[in-house]
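Troubleshooting: if your tokenizer reports a length mismatch, compare your output against this known-good record of 338 residues.
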Amino acid sequence: MGVFERYLSLWVGLAIITGVLLGQWQPDVFQMIANFEIAHVNIAVAVFIWVMIFPMMAQIDFSSIKDVGKNPKGLVLTLVINWLIKPFTMAALGWLFFNFIFADLVDPQSAQEYIAGMILLGVAPCTAMVFVWSQLTKGDANYTLIQVSVNDVIMIFAFAPISALLLGVSDIQVPWQTLLISVVLYVLLPLTAGVLTRKALNQGKDEQALNQFLAKLKPWSMVGLIATVVLLFGFQANTILAEPQTIVLIAIPLIIQTYGIFVIAYAAAIWMKLPQKIAAPSCLIGTSNFFELAVAVAISLFGLHSGAALATVVGVLVEVPVMLSLVAIINRTQHWFK
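Known-good structure output:
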């Protein structure tokens, strides 16, 4: 894990402060950027998110899917957690906290937007950072790659329907056209570009050229993330300064969701008698989120200044320290899997 990844929460925190200060200092500049949209997609944010996502997609080798039958139990655990449990527990927690527990602290419109942001986080399983978590827990790198590849294929088809279902249940109206455009723009196209890039660079089985290219791309992913956070918090500057407690209110159910899903997945892995090197990434994929996609879709659906966009960015701030604590738990309980 590089210095940047290890202290990602710090950099995100600094980006938040920078964004808020710039948003207060140059509000007209941020308003001009916010107005630069095509079909409800902000061009500046879309560019930064592509910079963020493409390096992650280029790392995925879909040829590994052919090995999925070698140890199916770990994959089954990941898929059940990601697609049958996690989206619904996230929606339930959002509904519980913002419609009841925090009902007196936020207005109804904002509450619905925060719930929407949480739902979008819950429906997007981790794609990139899970490779870091797997490495830190001595997980099976090849099996992690298989799990990520299968999840990404499912995400192309399942993200939009599940998101629309849960947002509809929460009485949030979602235009299907915008949601489908978001999935194509931020999942299908980057995946296709990543596959074509791997194929072009890997001709003649020259893995060195591919690895060198991926190494050069990796820093840009973080640049895209930080730039996106600066923009989002610049757009949200007035709201944040007027209601700083909002960040804390959003973080509480997100933290509960992360630890709760981990307990379910970890207990299931022990019951299924999975090897530790398979159990660790299986649990961590289901616990963490593809927050880049969630941020992009929240912006497309609800706008740059929305509570949904704010909730997904808070997910970035919360995820890294929480995931590092889960890595520590896994490493201290390896003897449970002998």
